[in-house]
Amino acid sequence: MTGDEADLLVLLRELDDPEWLEWPQHYDRGEAAAHFSVLVARLESGFAVRCTAERDTQDSSEYGRVVVPGDATVCGTRIVVCVSKFGSLALVCADNPGAFFGTADAQAEGELDASDLVEVNRALVELGYVLVVEELLESDYGGPSRLPWHVRRPSWSDRFFGIV
User: Fold this and answer.
1) CA 108, CA 72: separation in Å to the nearest integer?
2) Contact between 108 and 145 (Cβ < 8 Å)
């Protein structure tokens, strides 16, 4: 595990409150919506295309997703940005979460161009989102929250981007 991943794991543990599974205790739905709208606009501007967005996901710790269409990317593969209701956590995936073993794998397979990834990551960082790599999120969950019964092998992704 890299130092950055260790720091992110510390952050995930800090955000994990078993009393608040769907959103954090002081969650502001209006603020989350406004912040997400700015992200959508920023990605639309950066890629010069209309992006689709799912917002305010019900019964989930994920706030929403922005999809940059494949015809706007260098490799022709869509880019999906998932945003959690917790700590402005964000996940970037080529095609869909779980389609690859992470962005490095998608790049190695020629499905994600480095310049497209830089554009998305820059937007997220400039807007104060915390990037969490898919590989870390797919590691075994080790926090105190009781996740839903249907989650057989819980991961950090289930905790901060899953159905609760």
Assistant:
1) 20
2) no
